Automatic annotation (TrEMBL):
InterPro entries: ArAA_hydroxylase, ArAA_hydroxylase_Fe/CU_BS, ArAA_hydroxylase_sf, Aro-AA_hydroxylase_C_sf, Aromatic-AA_hydroxylase_C, Phe-4-hydroxylase_mono. This is Phenylalanine-4-hydroxylase. Residues 1-298 form the Biopterin-dependent aromatic amino acid hydroxylase family profile domain. Its EC number is 1.14.16.1. One of its GO terms (biological process) is L-phenylalanine catabolic process.
Amino acid sequence: MAIAATAKLQEQFDAGLETRADFTIDQPRERYGAVDHAVWDQLYRRQMALLEGRACEAFIEGAKRIGLNVAHVPDFEAVSERLMAATGWRIVAVPGLVPDRIFFEHLANRRFPVTWWMRRPDQLDYLQEPDCFHDLFGHVPLLTDPVFADAIHAYGRAALAVEERALPLLARLYWYTVEFGLMRDARAETGVKIYGAGIVSSKGESLYSVESAAPNRLAFDLDRVLRTRYRIDTFQKTYFVIDSFAQLFDALGAGIAARLGDPAPLIAVEPHAAGDVLASDTVYTRGTREGWLADGDV
Ligand code: HBI
Ligand code: FE
C-alpha cells in the first residue's frame, strides 16, 4: 500500500514527534488524555462483549493474556513483556502506517508496529486509518498463538522478497486473512469464527461477518485470494474461511514464495471482483448481495 504522508502523520511531525529510521517512537504516554483512556475502555468492553462466541478462542485468550483488559490505553512495554514470554514477539510504537518494506522488516524480526494514538470519540465506530485500538486490540492478541505468530513472521520474511509490482497482490492476501479472515469452527452456530483484525476491531463488522446473509463465505484458496480485489470503505462482499492457522502459515510463507517468486502470470490476469462467486469456489454461504453498493463491483 503506497504510504501517502497521511494528514495524521504530518500533524505529528509538525508537533515534533521525531521517529527513528525504522519509523518507531517511544510510546508518548504523556500525550494520552482522559478522553483517550475512556475511548480505549469503552471500545475494549464493547468489543469483548460482542466477540464472546464470535471470535476464535485464541483471540479471546490472547487479549486477556497480554493484559488488554485495563481501563486505560495499555503500556506497550508491559504488553511486549507478556507477548515476548508467549512467542518471542514484541510491539513497537509507530506514528501510523509506515512504508511497506519497513513494515515487513519489523514483522520479519517479530516486532509488530502499533500506532500509538487513539481515535476520537466521534470516530468510535469507524475510521479510515488504523489507530491504537485497531492495531493493539485487533492484531496483537493472536500473536500469542504460536502458529499464528509463526505465520506473521513468515509473511514478513516472504514479503521482503516480493517485487514492488506484486505488492498489491500481497495486500489482497493480507486483507482477506489477517484483516478480514474467518476460520471454520463446527462448534459455532454459524460454523465460522472471526480472526481478522479489521473485523474484531469493528462493532458493525463483528456481527455482519458471521451473521449477515448478504456476503459470500468461501473456502480460502491462495490463488483465488491473490486474484480478488477488495474495497477499504465498506463491509466485505466476500469472506474467505481458513481451516486452521497451520493453513495460514503455509499460505503466508511458502505460498507467497511459490506464487509471487515470478508474479507475472498473476499480474497479467484480470482480477475477480470482490463479490464474484466462481464455479471453482467451495461455497459455504452464497451471499444474497443485499445492501451492496449500487455502484457495481469493485
Ligand atoms: N504500517 N503501521 C502499519 N500497519 C500496517 O498494518 C501496515 C503498515 N504499512 C504497510 C502495510 N500495513 C501493508 O503492507 C499491509 O497492509 C499489506
Ligand atoms: Fe490492520
